């Protein structure tokens, strides 16, 4: 049973890794743990966990239909396993969704807030209802082991036919509605995939996938538990699947032809390559192989065909789910390792649950030997010391725990503090100091470097001994330095330039409250001293800056309010009335063109007190050179 | 029904609207993040100025579609179009599936990727201000009236008038008049604005129509499938009952 144990060890390790990443996901949000972006809002968790999870669960409805509706009793032996897989598959979808949703605790909102126009609303309801149906369908299996539940079990067995029918109908809706989801994106999904009959295409491929998935499961479990596989049954499934796959191929290409999109196949883009890969893997090759009886009846043949078809159709879901969406991202989306870890953990959890049910209950006709319940599992003692040597049961559980814990620890160590705590702001790339005390840094993270006077910053911020930590935060792991904007906040926006904390902190000016605020008043900007009371040289007499609150102006605002105010003053002082007009600074833009429509509007605007240009560029040229002050009007110095 | 007309030939790219929007909606300061797009829209910038060669300045914001894809897609109705024409968002309903972001043909909604409790963020046509009888902050502040607020019909007429009375000044098109069923934020320009949809011409079909037929088919698919299955089950069951009564026929059933 080492195969099973090693497999479980692997699954438990995946689970541990997922636990670490999952913690980070809920603490730090989606940005820190995924590569999703405003341009690519759906990624692996939707494309694989949800879209493909549902597709993989298709075996459930296909087999219940075969056995209970079409009464093909020879498949009875595998129907329980198929229902169990479908049930666990849907649970996995729901759990995967909890990771992907931004506000997962609101998932139940779909029950009370209805929007029946939304395909996602349909998907959500189908998941909920079908999960319930699957639970009821599967419940009799574990209930066998508990005599107290016999009544419930009998009742549910009697209800089987209605349940099966409801399950099939819900699956039909659900499989197809995953296709409907993408109907609203005609401008995004590549025309080789976008089609008004996406729901039909999804439903057909789900049937084929269901058959192939049941085959695949049968193969894996017989390998793991060293059982003889039900080759004859599997061959029959393959025989059915080949027709469905053929039909699917026919529909795909007829649809392409009907929509006049066959021409895209000659485009030669990477999407066309993906298309042919998908068609080959999902349908063309598997169908062709399944038509050869020798392949259908041989284990090796099935080991090739089933995984291939499953991969191919999952590939189709991932393609439609985002991979072939055109013109969405400016950059290619590749899932982060953290995304892959979560997906893997969800699959691992489902697989462990499957193995649990298989070992504990009567899922297969021949229940596999439970390795942990084997006679050898009796505790053994060292005869000399009477110390327990541990039973295999205890030993394998210890191993699983260890695998989980070590994988979780490994996961935590991989999660970098930088990625988690940066909130999406990358540390500015720095190059070697060039030319003495100047560094070349890309402080704005826009690809353009600037010469950063490092030495001057050191001096201004308090010298060698105290200044380093202001930018290089040793408490933030792997943080190399703050970006420029963390001090120069107004580079991008409105922000705090006063720096209250720096005034109050012992490491800064170390002022007490009452050094600035009046003792009996509410502590606010209004009740505080004026800046100029201490910083005598901060604001020259007659400057137009007013200290309204702690917010310094953002760049654009500053330019418009601060510069313009001074320009207005200067305009009077030097008698150059055009100095404060837009065109003085915005010399390049179109407003300078003499334009009757604009001129009219300007007059209206000027009557409202807004300043607009009236005259042409040469005119401003002279004024600019003559009248612009050479030095900045205000200078902010450290106290 | 209210609307915004943006005339890019009048925009001087001063970004006062961007600042005004941030103030009116109490948005946090903006720093560049990994997940942001180059057009400048983000969870903290609900409007942005895109600079095109010329220079032409194009103010980007939610288009407030007459038949919004986002609202039709949202499974819980967190996005909704008000009678005034604003497409507004109710964060207390949202579950964060981001289907709205996937569905919007203009790629407008943005997300709080950096927060553990994230919401969808986009221009809401200053709905609170509208209800107070005020106009949106961005149109109010615009110094050149490049972006103006008013009744949709009146603004459409104004746009047509400008195009008519200034031959050669504008491209003969109102972006947003009829595409995807019409939008409440529309543009006239001398430059080609199809870059707003990444070069694709949008058809006139409203976005919700693309899913409507599939959604209408839902009850039929459900009950149709259920009836078919029940029927098949009954027929096969009966046939098997009959065969059990006449065991010699049993062989016939072995083919499938
Ligand atoms: S532009 Fe996009 S976000 Fe705005 S109303 Fe239309 S669909 Fe919704
Ligand atoms: S993210 Fe929120 S607003 Fe957008 S579709 Fe989902 S539930 Fe609706
Ligand atoms: S209408 Fe309001 S929310 Fe929308 S861009 Fe203008 S200021 Fe911002």
Could you provide a short overview of the structure?
Chain A has about 650 residues and is mostly helical. Chain A has helices spanning about 1-30, 30-35, 45-55, 60-70, 75-100, 110, 120-140, 140-145, 150-160, 160-180, 200-225, 230-260, 270-290, 295, 300-325, 335-360, 390-415, 415-420, 455-460, 465, 470, 500-505, 515, 530-535, 555-575, 580-585, 595-605, 615-625; strands at about 430-435, 440, 450-455, 495, 550. Among the domains of chain A are: about 45-365, Formate dehydrogenase/DMSO reductase domain (Formate dehydrogenase/DMSO reductase fold, Up-down Bundle), CATH 1.20.1630; about 485-530, no CATH class.
Low-confidence stretches of chain A: 475-479, 492-496, 544-554, 588-595, 602-639
Q: What topology, given as strand order, has the largest sheet of chain B?
A: 8-1-9
Report the span from N to C terminus of chain B. 63 Å
What is the overall shape of chain B? elongated
Span between N and C termini of chain A? 75 Å
Strand content of chain B: 5-15%
The major sheet of chain B is characterized as: 3 strands, mixed
CATH topology of the largest domain in chain B: Alpha-Beta Plaits
Give the strand tally of chain A: 5
- Main sheet strand line-up of chain A: 1-2-3
Strand content of chain A: under 5%
* H/E element order of chain B: EHEEHEEHEEHHEHEH
Percent helix of chain A, as a range, is 55-70%
């Amino acid at each position: 049973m080492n195969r099973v144990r090693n497999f479980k060890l692997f699954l438990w390790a995946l689970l541990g890794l997922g636990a670490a990443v999952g913690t980070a996901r809920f603490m730090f949000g989606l940005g820190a743990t995924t590569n999703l972006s405003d341009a690519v809002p759906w990624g692996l968790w939707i494309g694989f966990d949800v879209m493909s999870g549902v597709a993989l669960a298709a075996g459930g409805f296909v087999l219940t239909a075969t056995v209970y509706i079409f009464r093909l009793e020879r498949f009875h032996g595998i129907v329980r396993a198929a229902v169990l897989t479908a049930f666990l598959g849907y649970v996995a979808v729901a759990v995967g969704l909890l990771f992907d949703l931004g506000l997962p605790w609101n998932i139940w909102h779909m029950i009370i807030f209805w929007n029946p126009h939304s395909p996602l609303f349909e998907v959500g309801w189908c998941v909920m209802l079908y999960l319930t149906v699957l639970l009821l369908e599967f419940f009799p299996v574990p209930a066998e082991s508990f005599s107290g539940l016999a009544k419930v079990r009998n009742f549910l067995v009697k209800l089987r036919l209605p349940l099966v029918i409801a399950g099939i109908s819900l699956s039909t809706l659900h499989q197809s509605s995953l296709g409907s989801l993408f109907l609203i994106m005609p401008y995004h999904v590549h025309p080789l995939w976008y089609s008004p009959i996406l729901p039909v295409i999804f439903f057909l491929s789900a049937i084929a996938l269901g058959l192939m998935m049941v085959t695949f499961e049968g193969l894996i479990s017989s390998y793991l538990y060293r059982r003889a596989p039900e080759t004859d049954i599997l061959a029959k499934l393959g025989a059915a699947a080949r027709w469905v796959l053929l039909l699917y191929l026919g529909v795909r290409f007829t649809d392409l032809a009907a929509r006049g999109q066959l021409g895209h196949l000659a485009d030669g883009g990477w999407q066309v390559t993906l298309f042919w890969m998908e068609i080959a893997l999902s349908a063309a090759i598997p169908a062709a192989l399944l038509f050869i009886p020798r392949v259908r009846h041989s284990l090796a043949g099935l080991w090739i065909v089933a995984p291939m078809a499953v991969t191919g159709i999952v590939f189709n879901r991932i393609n439609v789910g985002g991979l072939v969406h055109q013109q969405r991202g400016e950059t290619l989306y590749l899932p982060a390792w953290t995304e892959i870890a979560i997906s893997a953990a969800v699959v691992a959890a489902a697989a462990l649950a499957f193995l649990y049910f298989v070992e504990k209950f009567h899922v297969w006709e021949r229940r596999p030997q439970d390795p942990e319940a084997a006679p050898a599992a009796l505790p053994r003692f060292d005869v000399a010391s009477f110390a327990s040597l541990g039973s295999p049961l205890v030993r394998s559980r210890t191993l699983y725990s260890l695998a989980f814990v070590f994988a979780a620890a490994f996961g935590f160590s991989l999660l970098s503090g930088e990625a988690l705590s940066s909130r999406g702001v990358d540390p500015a790339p720095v190059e070697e100091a060039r030319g003495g005390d100047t560094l070349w840094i890309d402080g704005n993270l826009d690809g353009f470097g600037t010469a950063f006077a490092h030495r001057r910053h050191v001096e201004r911020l308090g010298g060698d001994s105290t200044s380093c930590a202001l930018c290089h935060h040793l408490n933030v792991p792997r943080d190399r330095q703050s970006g420029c904007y963390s001090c120069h906040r107004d580079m991008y926006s409105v922000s705090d330039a006063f720096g209250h904390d720096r005034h109050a902190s012992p490491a800064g000016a170390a002022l007490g409250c009452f050094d600035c605020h009046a003792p009996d008043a509410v502590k606010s900007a209004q009740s505080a001293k004026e800046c100029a009371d201490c910083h005598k040289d901060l604001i020259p007499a007659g400057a137009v800056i007013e200290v309204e609150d702690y917010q310094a102006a953002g760049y654009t605002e500053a330019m418009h309010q601060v510069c313009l105010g001074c320009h207005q003053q200067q305009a009077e002082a030097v008698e150059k009335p055009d100095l404060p007009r837009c065109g003085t600074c915005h010399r390049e833009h179109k407003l300078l063109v003499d334009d009757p429509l604009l001129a009219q509007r300007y007059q209206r605007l000027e009557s409202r007190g807004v300043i607009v240009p009236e005259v042409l560029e040469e005119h401003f040229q002279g004024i600019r050179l003559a009248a612009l002050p050479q030095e900045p009007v205000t200078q902010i110095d450290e106290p | 029904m209210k609307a915004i007309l943006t005339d890019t030939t009048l925009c001087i790219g001063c970004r006062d609207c961007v600042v005004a929007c941030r103030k009116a909606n109490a948005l946090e300061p903006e720093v560049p993040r990994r997940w942001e797009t180059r057009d400048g829209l983000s969870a903290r910038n609900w409007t942005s100025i895109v600079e095109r060669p010329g220079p032409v300045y194009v103010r980007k914001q939610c288009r407030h579609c007459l038949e919004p894809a986002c609202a039709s897609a949202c499974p819980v109705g967190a996005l909704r179009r008000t009678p005034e024409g604003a497409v507004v968002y109710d964060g207390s309903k949202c579950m964060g599936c981001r289907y709205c972001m996937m569905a919007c043909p203009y790629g407008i909604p943005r997300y709080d990727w950096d927060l553990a409790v994230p919401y969808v963020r986009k221009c809401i046509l200053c709905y609170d201000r509208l209800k107070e009888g005020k106009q949106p902050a961005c149109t109010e502040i615009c110094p050149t009236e490049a972006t103006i607020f008013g009744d949709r019909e009146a603004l459409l007429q104004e746009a047509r008038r400008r195009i008519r009375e200034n031959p050669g000044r504008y491209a003969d098109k109102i972006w947003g008049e009829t595409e995807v069923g019409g939008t409440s934020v529309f543009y006239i320009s001398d430059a080609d604005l199809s870059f707003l949809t990444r070069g694709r011409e949008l058809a006139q079909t409203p976005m919700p129509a693309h899913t409507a037929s599939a959604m209408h088919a839902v009850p039929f698919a459900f009950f149709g499938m259920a009836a078919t299955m029940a029927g098949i089950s009954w027929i096969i069951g009966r046939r098997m009952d009959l065969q059990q009564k006449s065991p010699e026929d049993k062989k016939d059933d072995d083919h499938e």
